[in-house]
Write a structure and sequence with these properties.
The chain is mainly alpha-helical. The chain is about 80% helix and about 0% strand. Keywords: Membrane, Transmembrane, Transmembrane helix.
Length: about 300
């Protein structure tokens, strides 16, 4: 298999597992596991998996000074702990497809943050794309279909914040280029977010949700799925894919994520979107791809 095929395969693996995430999160929520607890298991499993991965392939990633560990810890709590939790909450309150597409606004936020913090110019083309994404967000919120007073404003804002926090995963490491490696920030970020979320995790509730469920193995498999597949393997696959293909190509393939998320939501929960919502989702996907390709 040549490098391009390797890269495309890795991105498709990441996209497939990210697309499953909304349904898995909803399933765990329906089983009685709260958002914080779901996020805890995502971080814990990712920390264990990524720790083993680095121990085998990059032991130097663990060699960080105390300041770097603290910075990485804060980075992880903010971008992993919070973003995982906001996504879970969004999935509880709005359709899975809407939550997934709102998370996909992250390239727009990356562009805005880069302009604010790193003085990168927002060209007229980028401004047009951002405006397109805003229109897409308004359409997918279904404000024109149900009226402003009937919208789940909290669900939509929390879903949108997932995109912002996801963007910070890429933006924050830029402040420390040359000081701390991305691998170091990731592993200590996962470790500290796991520790922080442990204080808010309802372990008794998780145990009850598993033991009283008619199919406890099914609940456990969903926990392992969202931790191993949708967090550890998906993130590693995407990062490794950019070693073989351009980020622009990767972004085009990742655009399948909202499509897959919507498809899984329809198959499992029978969720559907209106025509205007589908148009809004399409506009956001187009905007994200256009921005990524423009930035390459």
């Amino acid at each position: 298999m040549n490098n391009k095929k390797k890269g495309i395969t890795l991105v498709l693996i990441a996209t497939l597992f990210w697309g499953m995430m909304g349904v898995t999160s909803r399933t765990l929520g329906n089983a009685g596991i709260d958002s914080m607890s779901i996020s805890f298991f995502r971080c814990l499993i990712a920390a264990i998996g990524f720790g083993i991965f680095l121990f085998i392939f990059n032991k130097k990633a663990f060699m960080v000074d105390f300041k770097g560990i603290i910075i990485s810890g804060i980075y992880g709590i903010v971008t992993f702990g919070l973003s995982f939790t906001t996504f879970n909450i969004a999935v509880e309150r709005v359709p899975i497809a809407v939550a997934t597409v709102l998370m996909f606004t992250n390239p727009i936020w990356v562009t805005i943050f880069n302009a604010i913090f790193f003085k990168e110019k927002i060209t007229s083309k980028k401004a047009t794309v951002i405006a397109l994404a805003i229109i897409g967000c308004l359409l997918i919120s279904n404000i024109f279909g149900v009226g402003f007073e009937n919208l789940d404003i909290v669900g939509l804002l929390v879903g949108l914040s997932t995109g912002v926090l996801f963007a910070l995963q890429l933006v924050i490491p830029r402040f420390f280029d040359g000081k701390y490696s991305k691998d170091s920030m990731l592993i200590y970020g996962f470790i500290f977010s796991t520790i922080a979320l442990a204080f808010f995790t309802n372990f008794t509730g998780v145990n009850t949700a598993i033991t009283t469920n008619s199919s406890p193995i099914f609940v456990i498999l969903n926990i392992l799925s969202i931790g191993i597949l949708s967090t550890f393997i998906a993130n590693i696959s995407y990062v490794k894919a950019t070693d073989y293909i351009e980020t622009g190509v990767a972004s085009v393939l990742v655009a399948l994520e909202p499509v897959l998320g919507s498809l899984f939501a329809y198959i499992v929960y029978g969720e559907t979107l209106t025509g205007l919502q589908l148009l809004g989702g399409l506009l956001i996907v187009i905007a994200a791809i256009w921005l990524a390709r423009t930035s390459d």
